Amino acid sequence: MTLPRRHFLATALAPLLEAAPGQVRVGCQTRAYGSPIPDRDKFLAALADLGKLGYEGFETNYRSLEYSFTQPHAMRRAFEERGMEMMGLHVGAGFFDPTKVLDEHKLIHRIAGAAKECGGGHIIASGRALPTGADGRATPGSLHSKATELNAAGETCRRFGLRLSFHNHRHELAHDAEEIRTVLDATDPELVSLLLDVGHPFPAKWPVTRIVREYGSRIAGFHLRDTTAGDEVMFGTGEFDFAELGGVLRETGWKGWLIVEVNRRDDISSRALVDRCRKHIRDTMRV
Predict the structure, then answer these.
(1) How far apart are CA 25 and CA 285, in angstroms?
(2) Does domain 23-127+139-285 match CATH 3.20.20.70?
(3) What is the DSSP letter of 64?
(4) DSSP 257-274
């Protein structure tokens, strides 16, 4: 069946428009202060820091807020008082092991309801490497399972008014980003998006800029880190070209969330670390 052009464009652009209408927004993963942060006072103190430093929102592991799932509206008010929006909750889910898939879906259903009540817009799912064949590539069966289960989880999230995004690691970028491309092509764009983590080595044929140009409408956000040979380093001292990414985002008109995702360091306070990151994004990416 051939879809009308208007329907095709609406479907293709839906993830882009829903991610963050009209602008690029900058948030921070709270792992810069610890992961997870189950202490309410420490968590809210971190959000207060982020708000004062110019961040608009945050992402966190669902375990940071699990204690508040029975009273999400109170936590949402606490976010609003600090001028912070919850971009989404992060959860681990492999979506390929038949002995674990049912529990993964139950978990996503539980946290999706809480995320919505807390004012969140996304569930971010990431998991283990898929089983591979003799050639080192993910097996067709595991890729099919991942795509199928992502669609199902995306439908669950949609019922709560959320978007599901899968988060990549190094293994999804192997073999010319084969897994990312296969999963995006095999899933429904109205149900499944991508949170692209730029802190991993990208293949020469599929650098970040090419993925943005070809799959930009499927990208709900970016995890921003600086790395050298795949190892995290201080923002602005590694190999990642933040200015280049900022340029391609402007060129393509992409809108959505830029999420700083850095780990705590011993040589600098968490507040000073995320302050440095925010300034570097403003100076290099112009947002």
Answers:
(1) 12
(2) no
(3) G
(4) EEEE-----SSS-HHHHH
